[in-house]
Specification:
By secondary structure, the chain is of the alpha/beta class. The chain contains twelve helices and 13 strands. It starts with 7 loop residues before the first helix and ends in a 14-residue tail after the last helix. The structure holds zinc ion.
C-alpha cells in the first residue's frame, strides 16, 4: 500500500467533482464531530450544503459504516427525524512517536477517543531495530484493542525532524542516527500493509494540543516543542502548515545569536543549542544526553547554580522565539510543550515573561500570549494519531470548535 500523500497541495488542489465530493464528505463528518448527533436538515443548515447533497453524502457514509443513524423520540406524533452520528468503530488510526528514549503509540477511534496506548523504552535505535519496534507497537495496539487491521485508516509516525536536509538531518546529537536516508513511511507501510505517513514531532504536537490539550478552542497556534532538540509546529485555520517539504517550523536552527554557540548544522547561535534537553545536559557538562530527565529534575529542585544559569539562558531564547513567531504568524497564542519535564517548562515560561512587544501585544487579549501545553508526554503521538483521521475524513470546514474528546 502506498504511503499517504500529506502535501498541502494534495489537500487543496483542484475543483473537479471527485475533489468536491471528498471535501463535502469531510465537511459533513467534521460537523458531526463538532456538534454531536444531528438530523440531515441540521447538517445541511450548518454546512451550507443542499439537503439533497447532504442526503447523498449521508447514505454513502452510512453504507461505508462511518456514520450511524438513529431515530429520536420527539414526543410528537408523526415520523421522528433520524439523527446522524459518527460510528466510533467506523475506522481507527495509529500514531507512533519514536525518539531517542521512547517509542510511544496510541490508537484512536473515529471520534478521537483513545482506545489503546503503548510506551516502550528505546536507546536511540538504528533503523533495523527502530522499524521492527514500530511494527511491533502497531501490531500490539491493534491486537490489544481487538480491532481488525482493515479498520485502520492509517498510521502516522513522528520523529525528530527535519527530513532530507543535509547536514541538519544527518548530523548531531538531536537527530536519530542513521535514519537520514531511510524512507520510513515506505518501509513501515510495506511491513504493515497500511498507509503510513511521516511527520515531524513538533507539527504532531501542535495537532495534539489542538485536539486534546490547551488549544481546543484555537485554530491558529504556534507550538514550541522542547524535546531532545527544539522544534516548532504551526496550525493555520486548524490545519498543520508543513511547508513545501514538510519541514516548516524548524525553529531549532533559527539563529538567535549571530556570533553564538556553534551548532552541528554548521551555523552559529541556533536556538536549540540554548533551549533543548540536549542543551541543558550539555550545559551541565554531559557528553551525551542521558535517557532520563532525573538529573535535570534533581538540579532543578535543589536550585543548583549551574542549572539556574542555564534556565536564564534558555528562557531568554524562549522569549526571543515567541516574539519572532508572533510577528511571523500572528497566532492566537504560542504554546510551549515537549519532553522537558513540566516543572522546568513552567519555570522557563515564567522567566520568559514579561514578553517584549510584538503584533500580539494587544491590550484586550482573551488568552495569554504564551501558555504551557497540557497534552502530556504523549502529545506528539496523540497528534500523530489524529493525522490519518484528519486527512482521510477531513477538517476542511468553517465550523469553529475543535473535536470533542470523551475521557
Ligand atoms: Zn543549527
Amino acid at each position: 500500500m502506498r504511503p499517504m500523500d500529506l502535501t498541502n497541495a494534495g489537500v487543496f488542489s483542484g475543483a473537479n467533482l471527485e475533489n468536491a465530493r471528498d471535501h463535502n464528505r469531510r465537511v459533513a463528518i467534521e460537523t458531526l464531530r463538532v456538534h454531536g448527533p444531528l438530523s440531515r436538515a441540521d447538517v445541511a443548515r450548518i454546512t451550507g450544503l443542499s439537503v439533497q447533497t447532504t442526503s447523498n453524502i449521508a447514505e454513502e457514509l452510512i453504507r461505508a459504516s462511518l456514520l450511524l443513524e438513529s431515530p429520536v423520540s420527539t414526543g410528537l406524533r408523526g415520523k421522528p427525524p433520524k439523527l446522524l452520528t459518527i460510528n466510533p468503530d467506523g475506522a481507527y488510526s495509529i500514531g507512533l512517536q519514536l525518539d531517542h528514549n521512547w517509542l510511544i503509540g496510541v490508537l484512536l477511534d473515529l471520534t478521537g477517543v483513545r482506545r489503546g496506548e503503548i510506551m516502550v523504552q528505546v536507546d536511540s535505535p538504528a533503523p533495523p531495530t527502530g522499524l521492527a519496534a514500530l511494527e511491533e507497537a502497531a501490531r500490539k495496539l491493534v491486537a490489544d484493542a481487538n480491532v481488525r487491521f482493515e479498520q485502520i485508516c492509517g498510521v502516522s509516525v513522528v520523529m525528530p525532524g527535519p527530513f532530507e536536509v543535509d547536514p541538519i538531518a544527518s548530523n548531531g546529537p538531536t537527530v536519530l542516527p542513521g535514519w537520514a536516508d531511510v524512507a520510513v513511511a515506505d518501509r513501515l507501510s510495506e511491513r504493515l500493509n497500511l498507509p503510513v505517513s511521516l511527520e515531524n514531532d513538533a507539527t504532531a504536537a501542535a495537532m495534539g494540543e489542538h485536539y486534546f490539550g490547551v488549544a481546543r478552542q484555537h485554530r491558529n497556534i504556534v507550538v514550541i516543542f522542547v524535546g531532545t532538540g527544539l522544534g516548532g509546529g504551526v496550525l493555520i485555520n486548524g490545519q498543520p502548515y508543513r511547508g513545501a517539504f514538510g519541514n516548516a517550523g524548524e525553529i531549532g536552527h533559527m539563529t538567535v545569536y549571530p556570533d553564538g554557540r556553534r551548532c552541528y548544522c554548521g551555523n552559529q547561535g541556533c536556538a536549540e543549542t540554548y533551549l533543548s534537553v540536549h542543551a541543558a545536559y550539555e550545559h551541565l557538562g554531559y557528553a551525551r544526553t542521558p535517557p532520563t530527565y532525573d538529573e535535570l529534575l534533581h538540579r532543578f529542585h535543589t536550585g543548583e547554580r549551574q542549572f539556574d544559569l542555564w534556565m536564564d539562558e534558555a528562557a531568554t531564547v524562549l522569549r526571543l522565539l515567541v516574539i519572532n513567531l508572533e510577528n511571523l504568524f500572528d497566532p492566537e497564542t504560542v504554546i510551549v510543550n515537549g519532553f522537558m519535564p513540566h516543572a522546568i517548562l513552567a519555570e522557563l515560561e515564567r522567566r520568559a515573561l514579561p514578553l517584549p512587544s510584538s503584533v500580539s501585544s494587544r491590550r484586550r487579549r482573551e488568552v495569554p500570549r504564551l501558555i504551557l501545553g497540557a497534552a502530556g508526554q504523549e502529545v506528539a503521538a496523540l497528534g500523530a494519531a489524529v493525522l490519518p483521521l484528519f486527512y482521510s475524513f477531513g477538517h476542511l470546514t468553517p465550523v469553529s470548535a475543535a473535536m470533542p474528546v470523551k475521557t
